[in-house]
Amino acid sequence: MRIAVGVTGASGAIYGYTLIKALYDLGIEVHAVYTDMGLKVLEYECGHSIEVIQKYATVYDNADLFAPLASGSFKMNGMVVVPCSMHTLGALAGASGRDLLTRAADVTLKEGRKLVVVPRETPMTPIHLENMLKLARSGVVVMPAAPGFYHKPATVDDIVAFMAGKILDIFDIEHALFKRWGN
Ligand SMILES: Cc1cc2nc3c(=O)[nH]c(=O)nc-3n(C[C@H](O)[C@H](O)[C@H](O)COP(=O)(O)O)c2cc1C
What we know:
alpha/beta; Rossmann fold; 6-stranded parallel beta sheet; 7 helices; 6 strands; 41% helix; 16% strand; globular; binds flavin mononucleotide; flavin prenyltransferase activity; UbiX-like
């Protein structure tokens, strides 16, 4: 499998990092693109530079519209934008394609592949909600960063792993990131 991960400057860089590492650990090919603010928030919240991400993924420059992810002919199983800022959410809803992240997401949709968007903001305005509705109506899986607590997380890592696991579930990828209800 081959999955693209786009990471923006919303809070929750650890969600992107955890997903990328989980995919890598499961033997899945990961192609990652960070926005400029995504890189800054990764450094600020996690203390990681992009070199850490490069251990687990092929990382592209967001300005590089010649990169493989910019074309539908580059086969992918899908893409996840996590965490997704309200800025990028608006760009996705407008099919902007002005940088690699938004172009790759637009390509994912037009090719009929799975696109998962994990918005992070609170509270939300009607503009944010309308953008999410627009995407959901186009077949995007909108999965707000709203982890559950019914699996009784003991650590922040457990909370984050829950979200990463819910994303993997969308792609039907087996994982052990959280304990399932009823198991
Ligand atoms: C520490 C930090 C946390 C932020 N958290 C959020 C957030 O949770 N949601 C959001 O929409 N924007 C958040 N922002 C603002 C975005 O980074 C800003 O809107 C930026 O333009 C997003 O650009 P991008 O979508 O290209 O990454 C945050 C900024 C900083 C510095």
